[in-house]
Write a structure and sequence with these properties.
- This protein has a 9-stranded mixed sheet, sandwiched between helices.
- It folds into 2 domains: 1-49, no CATH class; 53-264, Vaccinia Virus protein VP39 (Rossmann fold).
- It is α/β, with parallel strands linked by helices and 270 residues long.
- It starts with a helix and ends in a 6-residue tail after the last strand.
- β9, α7 and β10 form a beta-alpha-beta unit.
- The protein is globular.
- It has 9 helices and 12 strands.
- The structure holds zinc ion (ZN).
- Residues 11, 13-14, 17, 37, 39-40, 42 line the site of zinc ion (ZN).
Length: 270
């Protein structure tokens, strides 16, 4: 974990304090912890560069439990994600096109990029290559996923930092991030309004939230919800975005796929 990344983080326990290494760290990166909150003194383990805000006592939903299985993490990018995407979108958008749209929606981020729900790091690694001028940070709930992503980054001599955290809480200081990216992720979470509020708080003015998701349609939505997914219509996304105070909603629709962005206003209204 680079020092500049550690300085972006905010203690999720008290919601105010910054984090510092408990022991003196030589060089520009912190490999082992713990890191300590300067305000409430809470300590969070750092192991091999990964900071863990979740610990072992988190309550996991069934889908999250699946993500904790090492075999799911190992085969995620190669088998599981493409299969899930094909089912959800009926194969109408390939990953290459998805990434190209995503990149254009991100624009020129005015600060670090967070990949929310980074999984095994497929998109994260492309982001770190394409936006090498800013730190790229992967956030996920699943430890095996993060370990897989870290191994891939290391193997390919790329640069990225990793945070294990449970959304909707964003463990970042106010107005520090240049972009928050969530690829194929928000339909796995219920608390979109809370998450967008947190995203809006963490973004710098002009910083963007860019997400890809899908619409199930009125007929199928109840079925998807029963399966633990939260598909949302464009109207619902627009409403949540506005409620969070984000502006400049734009979307690219390759039905039923929705790629969209919103941003934090560059000047406060009024
Ligand atoms: Zn604290």
């Amino acid at each position: 974990m680079r020092r500049e990344t550690l300085e972006l983080l905010r203690c999720p326990k008290c919601g105010v304090g910054g984090l510092i290494p408990e022991a003196e760290v030589a060089g520009a990166a912190m490999a082992f912890g713990p890191a300590r909150c300067v305000s409430c003194g809470a300590r969070f383990p750092v192991h091999d560069g990964l900071i863990d805000f979740v610990g072992d006592r988190a309550k996991l939903k069934a889908l999250q439990q699946a993500m904790e299985l090492p075999w799911v993490a190992r085969s995620w990018e190669r088998y599981v994600r493409p299969a899930v995407d094909t089912v959800l979108t009926r194969g109408r958008l390939d990953h290459e096109s998805e990434y190209t749209v995503l990149r254009n929606l991100i624009g020129s981020p005015p600060g670090p990029i967070v990949d929310l729900g980074c999984g095994a790091g497929l998109v994260l690694r492309r982001l770190s290559r394409d936006f090498s001028q800013v730190p790229v940070i992967g956030v996920d709930m699943s430890r095996p996923m993060l370990e897989e992503a870290m191994a891939q980054v290391r193997e390919n001599a790329e640069a990225a930092d990793f945070v294990r955290a449970q959304v909707p809480l964003m463990p970042f200081n106010d107005a520090t991030l240049g972009a928050v990216v969530a690829v194929g992720f928000i339909h796995f979470i219920d608390e979109l309004d809370e998450l967008l509020r947190e995203v809006a708080r963490s973004l710098k003015p002009g910083g963007r939230f860019v997400a890809t998701t899908y619409e199930a349609g009125k007929m199928l939505e109840p079925m998807h919800r029963t399966a633990g997914l939260s598909p949302r219509s464009e109207e619902a996304l627009r409403a949540s975005t506005a409620k969070a105070g984000l502006v400049e909603f734009e979307r690219v629709r390759v039905s039923p796929f929705l790629l969209w962005k919103a941003e934090r206003a560059t000047s406060s209204p009024g």
